[in-house]
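User: For documentation purposes, I need each entry recorded in a consistent format: the amino acid sequence on its own, followed directly by the corresponding structure tokens. There are two entries in this batch. Please keep commentary to a minimum and don't merge the entries.

Assistant: Recorded as requested. Entry 1:
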Amino acid sequence: MKLDLISLSVIQKALENIAEEMGIVLRRASFSANCKERLDFSCAIFNSEGELVAQAEHIPVHLGAMFSSMDTLLAQYDVNSFNPGDIIILNSPFSGGTHLPDISFILPVFIENKLTFFVTNRAHHSDIGGSTPGSMPGTSTEIYQEGLIIPPVKLYSNGVENDDILNLILSNVRVKEERLGDFRAQRAALIRGEDRLKELATDYGRDFLLNSITQLMELSEDSFRSHLGNFPDKTLKFCDYLDSNGITENPVKIQVAMHKLKDKVIVSFEGTDKQQIGNVNCPKSVVYSCVYYVFRVLTDPSIMTNAGLFRNIEIKIPAGILLDPKIPAAVSSGNVETSQRIVDVLLGALAQSFSEIPAASQGTMNNISLGSTKGVTPFTYYETLGGGTGAGKFHKGTSAIHSHMTNTLNTPIEAFELIFPFRVKKYAIRQNSGGKGKNTGGNGIEKEIECLIDTTISIQSERRAFSPYGLYGGQPGAKGANYVRKRNGEVINLPGRTITELSSGDTLMIKTPGGGGYGKRK
């Protein structure tokens, strides 16, 4: 039965609300500041074939990569092996994950005794083992230094927790209680999603619901295909560079070419540099996430986000390059830093034909991991810092905000200082850091954190050597910078990726990049 647009919209909004409610439950039940304060998690619903049905408006780099997690899951498990109450856990970047701190939970949903959906979430945990607190070592050279690798395994079978697997995981992390609390929150969110989907199927009927979802996907596919009519009949190319690979100072090139072929858009990363010794290598799941994000934000926002929206995008990644690393490649920065440069490259290519494309945003997440196991109470903390967004044809850039592949909040100073042994000395907009132009790029952030105990600090950041680009005559945004001010007053410049031991009284100082400007100033 063919449904009208109003009826389809009601079903889609109901599904999206379920994903959003899953996120609310996860936040309220979580233990860590990273989930409770920063909201560093994402929730989505897939059908029994692993196709995206609906997602919450959470974090782009998580959401787009979940496609790969579902592909891996369904390739590894016979669908008949799933039972009600099963929960699969995974974090391996080579099995559809992103980087090791991002841990996914997946629960099969049975309606009328038939596998009908999967509900899933992915949360960034502030530690999953490895060589440094926070599991984001700035100078890692192999994935084993970055934490515990979890392939898809059943953490719950028929609703019963696998104590052996749980104990194995908790024996490899620094703050067990916090990990366990966030695991419980992820499970609670899945159960809420399962309950709501069953209620929806009761209201409408399983067959009606599945038929509606099929039509919703077809509608999204048709809408995207119609937008391809605006795509130029030429190949669009662009390249940009990562500052370094984290070990050597040599810049790392990312290149893209895209063109329309009949009713598809082909996105090729041929010409990108090879797999690197440092941690900038980017799993294919993250590359897909970046491409999907760019085309999602550039199409009509009224188009429903589901698997149909992406069926007409073909992504080509040559084997052996930075964007298709092989074990034991270090990848922790690929998810957070390389992803941002991929977006810059994609938008730079599209800007050659679409003047509405904005200049480059800050192009980094400015990752800071803080931790210590030397005190009475071991702790780990992770945060990312916002910066300036790029200006556009009709608007200035926005200051001090997360952009593109990240979408988190900050941890309020009051909560941060209450929970952790630090004092925030400064947290302010970095004035005049946005690129000049007819429209000025957004400003970055300045943050200074004083350590109250000896602390290991790991930084992964970008745009310290290459500025965020401006467009159409606009100037680039200011580069970022990392420093330490020792308690004796000495100031030491830090590289973009580093592991540093700070003493009580030392202060970490971060200046995040501004966004690029747009157009020439008159």
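Entry 2:
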Amino acid sequence: MKAAKFQWQLPEKQILPTEYEEWLSAHQLSPFLGKILWQRGYQTVADLESYFDNDLNNLPDPYLFFEMEKGVERIKAAVLSGEKIMIYGDYDADGITSTTVMKETLELLGADVNYFLPNRFKEGYGPNLAKYQEFVAAGYQLLITVDNGVSGMEAISYAQENGLDVVVTDHHELPAELPPAYAIIHPRHPEGKYPFKDLAGVGVAFKVATALLEEVPAEFLDLVAIGTIADLVSLTGENRLLVKAGLKAIQQTERIGLSALIRKSGIEISNFSEGDIGFGIGPRLNAIGRLGDASPGVELMSTFDEEEADQLAEFLEEKNNQRKTIVEKMTAEALAAVDPTNEIQLIAQAGWQEGVLGIVAGKILQTTGKPAILLTLKEDGTAKGSGRSVAQLNMFAMLDSMRELFTHFGGHHAAVGLTLPAENLGELQERMNDYIRSNNIDLAQGGPLQIDEIIQPEAATIALINELNTLAPFGTDNPIPTFLFKDVLPQNVKVIGANQQHLKFAIGEAADLDVLAFSFGPEANEFSGPIDVAGQLNINEWNGRKKPQVMLQDYQNEALQFFDWRNKYRWQEVLATESTLILAFQEASLKILPEAMKNAAVVYNNLADIQKRIAKNNYQQLAFVDVPKDLTFIKEILAAGSFSRIYFYGHSPDEAYLNGMGSREQFGRLFKLVQQQEKIDVRFKLDQLVNYLKIPKSLLVFMIQVLSELKFVTIENGVLSKVAVTENQPLTASQLYQDRLQRIKNEEFLLLTDSEGLRKWLLS
């Protein structure tokens, strides 16, 4: 039995309402697609109309934001009077695109505008008092924050008290007390009426731009799509409409810098999708802010110089490659420091690059299955870093209960940032372990995995995938549909990848639906029998040929599992000896086992002894090393325990099936030699006999034993002597001969039956 890593949420059977189906039909959408949408909460015609809406004229009025009017009037007044305006952004992709949108909007209005992106290592995230003091000293009269600001109490208070008005545009969590800014434009402001609460920072900047320009500025939609997808906000409602329009805009973008970055990323712009942002553009924009100054990102997005665009795109590519190298090195170091006894991995080391700690924490989480907090030890005696969590643990809530340990702390359910004195690390680890145990939080079971539909492999077609793409763009809260393929047999299982870390196999009656299983390479043994496969569909295109494939997310096997280890390359793999009954029917078979298993193996004597051993030990696995003389032994042993896995090696020490019984002619040659020699020392001359008679050694030994049993010869102290035959006996009169006949029959069945047939026989 192999349990799923995630908690599968299976779809409920649903008969769609008539008006719902009629709307789908009128828009050339199938009931199959309708059921997926219904499961996701779109259960009225109004929901469907909103989901598939492509009309930018239906965007909510920006003046529904609290203090939008006040903020816009202040900005317009600053532009008209020629005031110096500073835009204060953030160093990630959302902050870069937000800054670019606000900068270009104010430039269109003729403003005297400049921008500043804080360096995460110098100024840190959000309003920085020292920088605000510089802005006041430099004569700035208006500061506009984008993608930050609601937590900047100290800096904003100083600015307002010293003649620098601050208009905050932000989307992050609202603190209990808001700063005294001139205006706060936020979709979740408690006094606001804006209907969509999940805009990214760039989305809020876009709404301000819309109000300032008095029209929807289509030229910024490409930036909105990039920042929204890169910031992992909900791809529903208004975000979905903006991103759909933005993806189309990118295909015709006139941004020289964006085009250069797309080329440098190796992306085909004609098929540009949300995935190209998530895995291509977003990481490159984020990389510069992780390693230093993020300002080149704004310059790249807004430049009109092709040469500069190419140079900046190359710079971002270099930074991204540098980021990958750093992450790889830090991940290896962090994995080496993992302590499996801890409920949460708290790992700190001097010299680690602060900007990528969140990425590395995510990789530790993915590898170990446990939440992780990675910190760099600084020269001032503090530890600063990031944490990543699983669905079962609200890391923000947990650490909030320990807030006195930190000098800085913030975040949300799945991700946090924190700074604390290094001397508090031991207490933090202990308290986190206690928190998990005292609250009975099970970290072994993954979070929920929504299954959209259960289908057969034959239903996974190019046409279905194309239809599913009408649900795009995919992302947070609108994931690519996940399908369940029940009781399918993996075929042509191959371990792939430079480090053998991935798997590829096929399912379906014709084994024509490929499944790619990234990072499942170490679990290759689990794919030897029928399993349930949960995965997402996509199209693999190679040499102009398109073929559907499944990207594995999870799998399970609820039945007793059978592992066919009849190939010798499996025989040196070590099974857990405490939980595995390793059983041989012939002692000679033990020689094939690894040393770690040899001493724990049991040689079958009688069923009663085996039953006692099974009753005494909590075996979960059973390994049959060789073939018994009676197949009923296998079924009786299986019935004696509650095993979740069976391994079958199928070793034959005397290779009975391969060598056979010995032909009449072979027995004749042996008997003739015995008559001629009268005495033969088989202890020392057996190999010579093998060469002379041209009979395999194991078969020759058997033939000699048969002659001895029938008293045609005697063997004493290793010396074989002929006996005067008093009566003729057929070879079939030998019990050894009969036992071998049965063994050959058993070996023929157990060694030649295909894997699936043997599995069915064992599990029946």
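Summary note for entry 2:
The longest strand covers residues 531-542.
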